[in-house]
Design goal:
homodimer, 401 residues, alpha/beta, Alkaline Phosphatase, subunit A, Alpha-Beta Plaits, five-stranded antiparallel beta sheet, 14 helices
Chain lengths: 401, 401
């Protein structure tokens, strides 16, 4: 069913849906035949909820494809991640909690080192300290470009987010990072006629930056890549008739939620307790809550199996507080897998449970990769989760007579 | 595989396929964790057949979408229900067993009450008796419109089916039912140039109807909505090379079967026994039989769990008579779920079994929602059932060299 057909069927209801996402939830056993992180974790509350739920595995993008956080989340939110792309520049800006708007063009920036002839000698400027980066970013933000506003937001070490704001900036631009040393970084070229204006503005900025940084060796030049505009997506309100809220600590996830029109709530802290308190405090005001847990992914990417197990157990302890709110529909899942043994995101389908009073329960009292692979949700595209959640919330009318 | 590719592979055979459809078969437990209607029913014959079959669950339209009877059946018949739409007017006409043809434009009609100024005071004319409706429908059918034939078929209370027959009638028409009282019902407008002729004819009819009904208060006016043309679908003969017969008591199902080119058999009664006798009597004359059971849905929609259980058990008792005919392929399934606890159609996947001497049997001796979710057919789109049935009937040639 295409999204237009779906939109036609949306009906109002007073039901509430919670989507609890443990980033990088899916895992692998330490040794073949062993238990995954989730299977190892002691999760009495999730197991009890699983027994009352439909279980399944979600495929974020397509079989064998490892998703980045952007497409992984878009799929969970019900958008086809192959149709809607979020460019690298946009992800970088979202990652520092920058409130991107429709007139913004974003890119990933690096400080780099060039020699007297302007040839790159170090693409990362010796990984300068973040404090130096912050100072230099402020300097760059002082640059004035005709016809456009500039924002430079420091990330870590040599990286920063570059944002240029002006109506009519297209993102058909070549990159200035040649991905090698010994060459002069090329200026930006417009790859289509619509992007001429943007190319001119960006090159003006680069020239000014070069002059400002000339004596700042090792960070005496910049490289820009991944130019991308803020994508336009139908909002949760338009697509699903949902008043949706996002509860997340990290900028990137807050940003992706903002992209789809969720109201990003102020968590007022960094802990899971802060996140669940935010959920409780705002319970009356929204139809849909997306609650994001980062640590599962962080430990997966670090290769720390035990710490990932611990992060899952920490979430489990909050499940009773979630259920005490009496939500109509609960989804527990992840945006992708991050097995500790791989120390990275992976392509493996993600364990998922769907709870409501109208699901056919599987009676499997365990939330894990293997139990979910036996569940009645099946192994399904992640983008199918939202229609199922809406159906269980009695928010979709009958199709056809 | 698209339908053209499929059509190319169809080969003749003398095998026979039976599709036994229990309307609204899928259900939900009365209490979380309990048994569904089908799981509760004592079905020794279906259970024995399940043990010799491949089991699975069918998704009629797409995940989370609740189908109407039209799209639910189209999917079972192997047509993409999102590609072929059956409009509301057409369903209404099929429901009263009207033999729609390619020049027909159909709509849902209501008798309503208007005041002296022509403003609607009751959209349902106080739900007049069906006998009054029959009389007034005959009166309306006497109306003559230039260039088009008119048929008015009473349904129940204030409802009737409106059919206008003439070449070149398009269905891009606005509705005359404002869905509220206090206003004068608008005339029909053509929403595209092709529908100008139809708009003219319909408005002529409405003017004449208004004059004829002026003294028939409370039913002194009519409202028309859901204008739809008879859709053109490839027939079972064209698509599958099957000589197909439909055995159904209710008009709507007979009508949908006629839409896809099945020969609709005279059942000569209303009971399951009448339907199975019709099957036996016509066994030699067709390759494919669609046999429709209505009661399962009726009781599901009424919220009568026990009566739905009884209706399933009643069908079970006829299974030996079906098997005694020695069919090559048997499908037992439903067009959608109608859980008694929801008192309506629902989005839940539908238990389905596929029996032939060439299926990989699952060895699961139970026909129910949970047993089917473990079956080797998987959880599949309903439109995939027909290709699987044809394959098992050895009616599809090899694709490619």
């Amino acid at each position: 069913m295409n999204s237009y057909q779906m939109q036609e069927l949306i009906i109002p209801a007073k039901t509430k849906i919670v989507m609890l996402i443990m980033d990088g939830l899916g895992g692998l056993p330490r040794e073949p035949g062993g238990k995954t992180e989730l299977e190892t974790a002691h999760t009495p509350n999730l197991d009890a909820l699983a027994a009352r739920s439909s279980l399944g595995l979600t495929i974020p993008i397509s079989p064998g494809i490892t998703p980045g956080s952007g497409p992984g989340h878009l799929a969970l939110f019900g958008y086809d991640p192959l149709q809607y792309e979020i460019g690298r520049g946009v992800m970088e800006a979202l990652g520092v909690d920058f409130e991107l708007g429709k007139d913004d063009l974003a890119a990933r920036g690096n400080f780099c080192t060039v020699d007297a002839d302007g040839r790159i000698v170090d693409r990362r400027a010796g990984r300068i300290g973040t404090d130096v980066n912050q100072e230099l970013s402020m300097l760059l933000e002082s640059i004035r470009v005709e016809d456009a506003e500039i924002f430079i937001k420091p990330v870590k070490e040599h990286r920063f987010a570059f944002i240029m704001r002006s109506p009519g900036l297209s993102d058909g631009l070549s990159e200035t990072d040649p991905q090698c040393t010994g060459v002069i970084p090329p200026r930006v070229r417009a790859l289509d006629p619509d992007s001429e204006k943007a190319a001119g503005c960006v090159n003006q900025f680069i020239s000014s930056a070069q002059k400002l940084l000339v004596n700042k060796r090792p960070a005496n030049m910049i490289l820009l890549r991944g130019f991308a505009r803020f994508p336009t997506l139908p909002t949760y309100q338009e697509k699903y008739g949902l008043k949706a809220a996002a509860i997340a600590v990290h900028g990137m996830y807050r940003g992706v939620a903002r992209l789809v029109g969720m109201q990003v709530l102020d968590v007022g802290g960094q802990t899971l307790n802060d996140e669940f308190m935010t959920l409780e405090k705002n319970w009356a005001s929204f139809d849909f809550f997306y609650l994001h847990v980062k640590k599962t992914d962080t430990f997966g990417e670090m290769g720390d199996f035990d710490a990932k197990v611990g992060a899952i157990e920490e979430v489990d302890a909050f499940v009773p507080r979630l259920l005490a709110l009496d939500p109509d529909v609960v989804i527990v899942g992840g945006d992708h897998s991050s097995p500790a043994v791989l120390k990275s995101h992976s392509w493996h389908p993600v364990p998922t449970l769907l709870f409501s009073r109208y699901v056919r329960t599987d009676g499997i009292p365990e939330f894990g990769e293997r139990s979910c692979s036996r569940g009645s949700l099946g192994i399904i595209p992640a983008k199918n989760i939202m229609p199922l959640a809406l159906a269980n919330a009695l928010r979709i009318a009958k199709y056809g007579a």
